[in-house]
Amino acid sequence: MVTAMVESKTKLHSALLALCLLLGGVRPALAIDQQVLLKVFFSVVLVRGYDHNGGLAYGSGVVVGENQVVTNCHVLRNVPRAWVSQAEDAYPVEAVQADPFHDLCLLHINRLPLKPVEIGSTASLRKGAEVIAMGHSSGNPSPITSVGQVRSLYPFDGAHVIRSSARFTMGASGSPLFDAEGRLLGINTFKTPGRFAYFYAMPAEWIEALRKQPKQTRLPIEGQAFWELPDEAQPFFMQVALPHLHEEWTKLKEIGLKWTQTELQNAEAWYELGAAQEGLGETAQAEAAYRTAIQLDPHHSESLYRLGLFASKRGDREEAHRVNATLARIDPEMAQNFAKEAGCGREC
Question: 185 and 177 in contact (C-beta within 8 Å)?
Fold first, then answer.
């Protein structure tokens, strides 16, 4: 009994030491309460399993209910058995409820001594909101924290897929994305390739439907996720990602036109069309597209940013000032970048 208590205290000390080091790396400018990180840290787990060739597959997960962990289904795609672990403690997965298309799996574990997190919603989420990603990137035994902001919200199947600037790498698939209060907003799932990647999280609202799926005790999990479909079958918000990153403006314009025709009330669609038109030198059309995006979503920071630069170039200081003031309320960091790029400093 004494030995067990010593081992338990040692594990807790190691975890707290890792958390202290983790907290030390969080930028103070992003105003994330360290007590929030402490509250959710011990609800994040490593998900592992061996494939048929003996290779180790791993991802991350988060406790969302008594003896329940959510992760990505693609983490379990090639493993006949899986378990979750935290520090030196491991717990076998007994059953799974799967939604392969949305890439979410609910793992059932007996006697999991970890507290569930509070589940939030993307319904009231706004661009520029601070978010926290916490997962086992690169298979690190302790969760790694990345703080960022919401960059885009894409309506899809009754909720909003989140694109954020909170970075993650392989091993963090299935990891949680929290708001500044520690509420679960989404599950980090995939990213685009390259240095300037886009990072996507599946909305927490989908967990409710996941709980209604039948339980299965056999692994691996089969089925293709929507983000793995051929390009032409993917949602528009995914089709535009690489053309935008690679500045393939003609291709982006083609997709943007289809997107705006299909989803007339989608601000993101109009922004992407505007970006393509601006890239092609079609300034008037781009400005019109950005203004449509702002009409649909007054908090659309990227469209405001581009309109502010247009105003600055034509000497319209009044509009440039309005844009900067609005950006300062929505996304202070973007407002600073705008003032620098517009060359107006405090005059903005």
Answer: yes
